[in-house]
Amino acid sequence: MLQADYTTSQLDVLEAEAIHIMREVAAEFERPCLLFSGGKDSIVMLRIAQKAFWPAPIPFPLMHVDTGHNFSEVIDFRDRRVAELGARLVVASVQDSIDAGRVVEETGRRASRNRLQTTTLLDAIEEHEFDAVFGGARRDEEKARAKERVFSFRDDFGQWDPKNQRPELWNLYNAKIRKGEHIRVFPLSNWTELDIWDYIRREEIEIPSIYYAHKRAVFERDGMLLADEDVVNRGDDEPVFEAVVRYRTVGDMTCTGAVQSAAATVEEIIAEIAATRITERGATRADDRTSEAAMEDRKREGYF
Amino acid sequence: MDILRFATAGSVDDGKSTLIGRLLFDSKAIFEDQLEAVERTSRDRGTEYTDLSLLTDGLRAEREQGITIDVAYRYFATPKRKFIIADTPGHIQYTRNMVTGASTADLAIILIDARKGVLEQSRRHAFLTTLLRVPHLVLAVNKMDLVDYSEERFNEIHEEFTAFASKLNAPDLTFIPISALNGDNVVTRSENMSWYDGTSLLHHLENVHIASDRNLVDVRFPVQYVIRPQRATDHAFHDYRGYAGQVAGGVLKPGDEVVHLPSGLSTKIASIDTFDGPVAEAYPPMSVTLRLEDDIDISRGDMICRPNNQPAAAQELEAMICWMADGVKLAPRSKLMIKHTTRTARALVRDLHYRLDVNTLHRDESAQSLGLNEIGRVSLRITQPLFVDDYARNRLTGGFILVDEATNGTVGAGMIVEARG
After folding, report:
1. Which of A19, B21, B178, B355 could form a disulfide with B367 if both were Cys (CB 3.0 to 4.6 A apart)?
2. Chain A residue with minimum CA distance to B60
3. Under CATH, what is the fold of the domain B2-213?
4. How much is the ipTM here?
């Protein structure tokens, strides 16, 4: 008779689900792409894509929305990883959107290109006629995301309508759209931050160095440690100091905070996360702090 | 560590949010910044207690109206298991959300207020849970503190619900008296109910046996995607032809004789491949790639199974449908797209046999149509054969969705009760 070893570990279940989602997209859409920022979630997503189509190459291009304010370590990592895979990378540049007059650069101390990315992203989706766009967002990240579908429909303005989402049952995903519309696909919906790290450990996946503890010149704002870099507008009342920090999330330098940490290995990071009492976005993302519904509002406009 | 997916049904009044809040809080899945945000919002609104429903009611409209609109997914883990909660609203106008949440659930918790007993909505939740074949059901009799932890009251509810459940063909049924507010029997056994000799709710969630809920008997491999690495740099893969998919039933092994549908041709499994190397066997829910010994023309939507155990190749289906569309109704002559496993076809509604009252289970055979959140039994004719099993036998090869051809919306969920070629 059947033995108890037909049980499946949580990472195997999540991986199998994500592979299934990726193959559905490859089978049902004409022009998918995968958003790859060099952050840990998109790195895991890329590994899943490799697994889903092996031994064939990944059958769609990668896209990075580059604010021009990214950490150089992450951009280097991105380019190296793309070269290793022989993948095609589309870089959609926020600077180009500014130069073309599509968006206006914010000014002042809190100026950030985070929100401008939405226009750049939607323009690139339209230009390349992408009909499915893989994102690495997880439902445990934020409460608006907790309600988003795996196949998340966007109208021809790229907008998300949270009150009019398609029901999603079993492992059946509705891929039907009209021209000009697209689907955002989130294969890691059911993963938690800890699952991502457990998977990085298990698969021995390389990640950018800024996830590990390092010395950095930082200053404090709203209880967050921001990097002292040219693109971050620091006030005279915000003194710089050196600290041993690491990043829990990787985003724009202007709105992504570091946490003080000595964790230098994946094992140490996992131990730290298991003990932490603050969510990753709460600890490190200024963009979610503006209001109770900040993420929902940005997502409605077409944000990641 | 494995995963247990469970759905919760009930309203705020039943203490559902309090229960989920407690499970998350006690397992440290609620973080300080989330709790602070909830406390701040509760205070701003003049609520006297910390309203934990604000943790799951993530949308602006939900917070403004103080209701849960949609399915919210929440995550927590104990050293024994990872849990995915599909938190669904309990009101009748959200039946489709509960059906959605239940479709993937291993277990459902139905909350009952000990003072109010088995209500119409408890019966509805139990019915939907069994309709969707959630294998394990927990009746959490909540607010036991408000009935003086009365064994007699608990037994009354136990008896009343058991009598009702016997009509439903209910699966594994467990009754647990709790107080979500005080934590009685939630994480640890309560000292207030020494008469209760069962386990705490969390202990039950951690230990309920789910591995055998999957169908490991009937081999079902819906072909999802054909892998042909034509521009592979490695010459070893030049002639590679693999059939990728997620196992929907049974255990597959290299060397097994298999049949391809619709062709009916037999071959053997040459290898079960993954990125991490070939595997000795594949079973649900693994995503793998099969290579076969013979060259057969196989494409997405086809099915691989065993010669002596095949699904029905059906163009006529009898199914229970939950209708999920606002506005447009399901009626005889409706034409829809149907997606079943990896195959998409068109379906014609031939007949609506009855509409089911989800509160009383009364069958209205005079019904002319199904509206939003209504459930009924229909006959469908499909443009091409689907390879199906009864939903009761396999949720993955017995379930399907219906898509509106005009709007592309997902408008119905179906569960096959009978299939004919």
Report:
1. B355
2. A293
3. Rossmann fold (3.40.50)
4. 0.94
Beta carbon pairs, A and B, within 8 Å: 191
- What is residue A230's predicted lDDT score, i.e. its pLDDT? 86
Nearest CA in chain B to A151: B410
CATH for B221-305?
Answer: 2.40.30.10
Superfamily of domain A9-195+293-301: HUPs (3.40.50.620)
Two structure tokens written together for A17 = 């689900």
Token duo for residue B183? 């934590």
Place of tokens 């003086």: B148
Quick one: A298 exposed, middle or buried, by C-beta within 10 A (0-12, 13-18, 19+)? buried
CA distance A96 to chain B (A): 33
Interchain contact, A282 vs B34, CB within 8 Å: yes
The predicted structure's pLDDT at residue B216: 93
* Intrachain domains B221-305 and B312-420 with the same fold: yes
Contact A174 B342 (CB under 8 A): no
pLDDT at A2: 43
CATH fold of B312-420: Elongation Factor Tu (Ef-tu); domain 3 (2.40.30)
Q: What parts of chain A have a pLDDT lower than 70?
A: 1-5, 281-292
Cα angle value B21/B25/B30 (rounded, 5°):
90
Q: Which amino acid, A142?
A: E
The model's pTM is 0.94
The residues spanned by each domain of chain B are 2-213, 221-305, 312-420
As a whole number of angstroms, the distance between CA A222 and CA A225 comes to 8
Pick from A21, A48, A169 the residue to mutate for testing the B interface (most B CBs within 10 Å).
A169
